[in-house]
Design brief:
The protein is α/β, with parallel strands linked by helices. The protein has 2 domains: 4-266, Spore Coat Polysaccharide Biosynthesis Protein SpsA, Chain A; 279-372, no CATH class. Helix content is 43%, strand content 14%. It contains 14 helices and 8 strands. Strands 1-4-3-2-5-7-6-8 form an 8-stranded mixed β-sheet, sandwiched between helices. Strand 3, helix 2 and strand 4 (81-87) form a beta-alpha-beta unit. Helix 6 (158-181) runs parallel beside helix 14 and helix 10 crosses helix 13 (327-337). The longest helix is centred in the last third of the chain and has 29 residues, at 351-379. The N and C termini lie far apart (60 Å).
Length: 394
């Protein structure tokens, strides 16, 4: 079947001459049950300048009542809306999100912010404003966190909800350890490590410079953020930015939240996400990231090879990594090239023990980080010149 695109723009008369400076882009496919709630949530955004927000709805391959519901609701919305209806045999999640965000970029024109969410998600009234606050603080892109829609989460098996709480607890402990050992000035603690298309924000310039959203079937959101970080853009994982996502078991995109929930219902003992690895291994990873960043910043990544030998990285790969001009690219490639930094996820039964261990170790990490930061501050004063750093052993 040929690609058929029917753009249908519906813009309130009072805003027809204005170009919004922030546009929400939503890919939509067969969401008749949820699209109305999604639209009401977008329309309920608070703390924004009138006329500053726009909405792009990219309806692709819809075979239910989604288009009719959208047509019924759009005239009643207070924000300008552009609706694009598409039929395309080759559609997939990355393609649809890319198309929605590209349409938002074209509408913005010269500058502004693109926000991405999903048609089965519900954004709180502060979602747009929270994204814009993070952008105003210096972030080129903003990754928010997610929670399950409460009334849907209540229907999940109790064991699955309990597992989710354990995973969230351990993830938060690992995130704090990482943020204190290898701090990113653009993404300071408190932060999180969620990367999901249901809540992503990016400046138009950054979006264009990295070539837009990767048009891949799975993991386009994580690949996009990795691309931004690799090219030196400031990505903030802001805990103040949050979206409620569906807890349904039958999703529209393979590999999404629905597939994860269903798989864990079917196999309660399934491994955790790759990021949730044993604490000792995670701490080694964070320390090596810090070491590699310091070597890159000082220009020593290419003049010494001890780091490559210790990470079992072949000489030719080490030379290629050392030649990379961008820090994010060098660190990411070093992790990929080293067999000693491969992720080894844990099982759900390991979570309680790892949580206890992390809680025992984290006070020492905080103390070490506090001493390091205090030394950095004191080093700028003449009376402490020559005092060795607490991290000199690196």
């Amino acid at each position: 079947m040929a690609d058929v695109v029917v753009p249908v723009a519906r813009v309130p008369e009072t805003s027809s001459a204005a170009i919004p400076d922030t546009i929400v882009a939503i890919p939509v496919r067969n969401e008749a049950e949820r699209i109305a709630a999604c639209l009401r949530a977008i329309d309920a955004q608070a703390g924004l300048r009138p006329g500053s927000l726009g909405l792009v709805l990219f309806l692709n391959n819809c075979t239910d009542d989604t288009a009719r519901i959208v047509a019924d609701h759009v005239p009643r919305l207070s924000v300008p809306v552009r609706v694009i209806e598409t039929v395309f045999d080759g559609a997939h999640a990355g393609w649809a999100r890319r198309a929605a965000m590209d349409a938002a970029a074209a509408w913005l024109g010269a500058s502004g912010t693109i926000l991405s969410t999903d048609a089965d998600s519900r954004v709180p009234p502060t979602w747009v404003a929270a994204n814009l606050r993070a952008r105003a603080a210096g972030a080129d892109a903003v990754a928010g966190r997610v929670e399950l829609i409460p009334e849907e989460a209540a229907l999940l098996p109790p064991a699955l909800r309990a597992r989710g709480k354990l995973e969230d607890a351990y993830d938060a402990l690992l995130t704090e350890a990482e943020a204190r050992i290898d701090p990113d000035p653009n993404d300071p603690w408190p932060c999180h490590r969620t990367t999901i298309g249901a809540t992503l924000g990016v400046g138009l310039d950054a979006y264009a410079q990295v070539g837009g959203m990767p048009e891949i079937p799975l993991g386009e959101d994580a690949a996009f953020v990795a691309r931004l970080r690799a090219q030196g853009f400031r990505v903030r994982h802001d805990p103040a930015v949050m979206v409620f996502v569906s807890a349904r078991l039958a999703g529209r995109a393979p590999g999404g939240v629905a597939d994860t929930i269903r798989a864990r219902c079917e196999d309660p003992g399934a491994l955790c996400d790759a990021r949730l690895e044993p604490l000792p291994r995670a701490l080694v990873r964070y320390l090596w990231r810090r070491r590699l960043r310091r070597l890159h910043a000082s220009g020593r990544l290419g003049t010494t090879r001890g780091w490559a030998r210790r990470l079992a990285i072949p000489p030719e790969d080490a030379r290629r990594i050392a030649a990379m001009p961008l820090l994010g690219q060098a660190v990411a490639e070093a992790e990929r090239a080293s067999p000693r930094l491969g992720h080894r996820p844990i099982g759900v039964r390991d979570l309680p023990g790892q949580i206890r261990l992390a809680k025992a170790v984290l006070p020492a990490v905080r103390a070490w980080a506090g001493l390091r930061d205090a030394w950095r501050t004191a080093r700028t004063r003449p009376d402490v010149a020559g005092v060795p750093a607490p991290e000199a052993a690196e």
